[in-house]
Design brief:
Rossmann fold; alpha/beta; 5 strands; 2 domains
Amino acid sequence: MKTSVFIPMQKILNLRNNLLSRIKRYLSFQKYLYKNIDQTNVKEIFFVVGVSCTGKTMISEMLKRDSLANIAVFDFDEGGVPLVLTYSWQINRLQQLIAKAKNGEKTVIFGYIPLEAIEEISSQNKYCIKCNILILTVDKKNTLDRLLSNSTRKNIDEYLRKTKTTIEALVITNCMNSDCYTTYAARRKIPILDTSHIDINVVYQHVRNWIIKTT
């Protein structure tokens, strides 16, 4: 025989009000922390991300040669990457680069980086870093043209040999990953720059201005 347990309505309302009060105090404390944190201790990180052939490497090199003050530039894959990338490796790599960032200095990180990893790192350090993201994209035709250009052909041939894949498969994968970036960006309202039909110098100026003007 089942026994019914009667809970007075007033007790339920008291429990509800107590819970709402706790939530309100917690949110108020979080808001206080955000407003009163010493902004000079916040690291400002700029992520310029995208798939292969979007111009990341060239723009990174151009920015390193620029005379801009208080800007540090890093490449996500500098020092080499494992042949089979894992999410944990990418998270660790992000943590290493963010550790190099200095307060009062804009740090720019270029690379093919999962936006989920950036979001996770940002969430873990929400009172220590401020993340800004710009996504570079490229269409299928220009991906193939750039892969076959003389400036990248040697590296691409070596990559295809190591991974035992074809250039056609690489182009398809590139486009699929680019679509994933675009879809994610649309949900998060992240700015996108299509580099398919833009001169690299124009792309560079756009990225440079975005870094300077974003605060």
